[in-house]
Design brief:
The protein is an alpha+beta fold. The protein has helices at residues 14-23, 51-57; strands at residues 3-8, 31-38, 41-48, 66-72, 87-88, 95-96. The protein is 17% helix and 32% strand. It has a 4-stranded antiparallel beta sheet, with helices on one face. A two-stranded antiparallel ribbon has the order 5-6. The radius of gyration is 12 Å and the shape is globular.
Length: 102
């Protein structure tokens, strides 16, 4: 089952989002990802597999005061890094997470 976590504040949102994703693990999922508003723009990092796999692969520089995270259960599309959420718009200005079929 999918889960969504968000954080907005003065501090780095990534640790808050990752902790929230960890709390959603009991629901079942096959991939996870985060998107943060960084000083240089919107940054997305996602991985097929467990939240621990995502955390182990996070770039040290992935920081920002606002962000979203998602755990995905693949009902459509294979559980791959590309299919993991968040999805980024072609211009890189919008990150989207959804539960369901669009």
């Amino acid at each position: 089952m999918c889960g969504i976590v968000g954080s907005i504040g003065a501090d780095d949102a990534v640790p808050v989002i990752v902790e929230g994703l960890g709390r959603l693990e009991y629901r079942g999922y096959d991939s996870a990802g985060v998107a943060v508003v960084a000083p240089s723009g919107l940054k997305v990092h996602k991985r097929a597999g467990r939240v621990d796999d995502l955390v182990a692969s996070l770039p040290k520089r992935l920081k920002g005061p606002a962000g979203i995270g998602h755990t995905r259960w693949a009902t459509h599309g294979a559980p791959t890094d590309r299919n993991a959420h968040p999805h980024l718009s072609p211009d890189g200005r919008i990150a989207a997470i959804h539960n369901g079929i669009i």
